[in-house]
Amino acid sequence: MSRxxxxxxxxxxxxxxxxxxxETDGAEHxxxxxxxxxxxxxxxxxxxxxxxxxxxxxxxxxTPYAMPLALSLVERxxxxxxxxxxxxxxxxxxxxxxxxxxxxxxPQAFVTAPGQGVNYARNTWHAVLTPIGxxxxxxxxxxGGEGSNLEEFTFPEPWExxxxxxx
Length: 167
Hints:
By secondary structure, the chain is mostly beta strands.
C-alpha cells in the first residue's frame, strides 16, 4: 500500500464523515440589523461534552510545514468539536483519518478554498493546523473544562501528504 496521500479540494460531501465545512456558499442566510447585515446561520455543530464542558474561542497563529508533509502524528478530542476558520482569505491543508479498531486509518487530505473553514466533529482524528506557504491566523472554537480533551497517535511509519499539482 502506498503511503502517499494527495490532497483534493474540500467539499461538504467529501468531509461529511469528519465534521462540517464552514463556508457561506450554500448556507442558510437572512438579513438582520435592519437589512445592514447578512447572517449565515448555524454553520457548524459545536460540541462541548464532559465534566464542566464549555465553549472556548481562541486565535491560533499557525506556521507552515515543509511540503510534502511527513505526517507522523494525528490527534483527536474526545469531549468536543474543534473549528478552524482562517482570518485571511488563504487556503490551508486539512488532514483527517477515519477511526478504525487499530486507531486512525488511512489519511484523507483536503485543500480549502479561500474563506472555507472546518469543524472537526468530536473524536475525529486530524492533523495539526497546517497553513500553506506563509503563517496564518485562525479563529478556533473548541472545548474547555475538566478532563483531558486530547488524544494523540503516532504512526509507526509516516504518511507523505502532497499538495495537488500546481499548488
